[in-house]
Each structure stands twice: as structure tokens, then as C-alpha cells.
Amino acid sequence: MSNKRVLVIDEESAFTRFLQDDLEQREISVACIYSPGDENGATAFAPNVIVADKKMLSQSNASLLRKLPLVLMTGTDSQWDHGSEASITAANSQIVATIPKPFEPNMLAELIDRYAEDSQKINLDSEYIEALIASDRLLDNLVVEFQSKHALDDGRIVGYEALSRLKTRRAISPATIFSAATEISLEIDATMNVIDQVMKLASSLRRSRKIIPVSFNCSAILLTQSDFVDALFAQLHKSPNLGGSVIMEITEENRVANIKVVSEICQMLSQYGLRVSIDDYGTGHSNLDRIAEIPFAELKLDKEIFWAFCNDRVPITVLGSIIDFCHMRGASTVVEGIETSFHLEKARLLGADQGQGFYWGRAVPPQYLVKDWSGF
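and the corresponding C-alpha cells:
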């Protein structure tokens, strides 16, 4: 397996967002520098090749340029400021290719494969997060995107899920970003920012006559933190007309929360019309006895256990019994990780209600979903 690590120095745009996703699909790890201050994270990322737009090169990242092979991109707009010539001169000896924009990712992937050696370091994501936190750049780098949920019987959109992404390292999962090593106060701030965006999207959808629920992820441990619970109640109190339009997905993780406290808070939140979902079922500490105390309206089967079923490693009776249990409680079920028509057929075979996954597309910024978006 390839272990190439590529640092992209460019402006933030739909193009660089797509580029990150495309290269990651090719098993090429990608981090970006968009703003001053991101260099600390870039150093922790430990790239072995740099892809840079000439106008973004500066003295602040010149030290990175001297150490690694450089593929230099050049823009096509003559009005662009092409950056510091001194920095480019200093990097000249490292420039191995120059490609004009716009270019095909296939071309870039071939150049990376040619010039980047496999990294000797395997997993640096935790170090990357630590570097962003140390330089106070984590919250500034977080964005919220939304992935659709679909009815399995006819494919119609039945909801959206808010997902936290790092602009500069999109492949890192929220579970890595908000691990036990991350301060709870930072996780609270980030989660409240997501909730704010969810409320705004739900409100915008209602104005456009689309009554589709929007969900956000919340770790169980946060529901035992009074600062977070108070802030969440205050946010719900400001939006009394969104009852039924917002779902809280309680995520599974290694930090074990007091389930009775979580259940009590969920009961109180339901008075505001906030529905509860159990996310990532089949991982961590989740079991039917444990979640039975929580008044959930939805359960989401984790993609790993679903894929295990698709590969005949988990019998249909195991997942079928979970779905039957949910239906007896009046709760709907969502299968995560549907990426192919085969996955879709298997999810329908289970008798689940909804599905989510790349089969219907990746998460997108909210302005892709509503015309009048002004959430940021």
C-alpha cells in the first residue's frame, strides 16, 4: 500500500476540496496550507512532496520548500499576484515539475507517484491535531458539511447529517479530532458551532418548504457536561419552531459515559422536539441492553458491521434482530456505508428503513443545499 504524504499550498476553494478527496481515494495522504499559521500542522504532517500554487509561496513556508521535492502549479489568471520571487528562487533546485491550472488530478497523481518516496512514518494524524491545537488553529480549520440520508425503498432524500471536517486535512475523522486527548472545552465549542449551522440549515429548508430533518453528532460524554447541556438547551430555546427538524446522533466512542445521566438528558431534550439517534451501532460499548434506556427514535448501523454482513462474516439474523428490536420500539433504522448497488441490495434485504453513503454522494457545504444560505 502506498504511504505517500503530500502537502498542498494553495488557496481554499472547491477545487482544492475536490483535490483532497480525489487523492485520498488513491491512498495518497493530503494536508493543505491555506493561511498563515498552518505551517506547524504541515510540519507535523511530515510530507514527502509539496504541490504549490506559485502565488501562495511565501517566506513563511520557504523552509518547507528547501527540504522536499516540489511540483509547482501556476494559475491562469494574469491578475494574480505570483508571490515572492525570492521564495521561488530558493526552491528552484527542488522543482521537479510545473503544471498549469486547471489540471487533471490523474496528471498530478502520476507526478506524485514518480517523485514522492513512501513515508517512513505511518500514522501522524494525532500529531497533526496536536499541532493545530498548540497553534490555536483547530477551530479555525473546522468546517461543517452535510451528507444526505435516503429512503431505501425509493431513494428519496429523507434527511441530512452534519459532519465536521478539517479544511486542511479532510480525511481525518471526527473521532480522531475529538479523542480523549482533546480538551472537553474545545469539543464543546466545536459541537456548538455544528449545532448552530444545523439550526440554520433546518430553518432554511423550512423556508423553502422542505421539511427534512438535519442531524448533528454528539459524543455521549458531552451530555454529562453541564456547560454543554446548558448551551444546548439555550440554543433549542431560541429555535422553538424547529421541533422535529433536528436530530441528535449520539456517537459511540471509547470514553464511557454514565448511561442513566445520558438517558435523563435525552428525555429532557425531547420536550423541545429534539429527536435522538444512536450512531455507529456495532462499535465500541454499544449493546441493546445499554441503549434500551435511551429514548431513541433512530438507530444507525455502523458501516463496518454492515460490510461484515455483506462479506458473509456476520449472519443476517444478527442484524435482522437489531432492526426488529428498533421497529418494535417504533424507531427507524439507517444503514451506513452504502457505496455500491450491491450494498444497496443487501441493505434492502435487511429490512432497514434508510441508508447513507457515497452511493448517493459525498458531504457538501450547506450552500449547495439552499440558495439563501448565510450561515457563516
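(Above: one complete record from the training split.) Residues 184-207 form the longest helix (24 residues).
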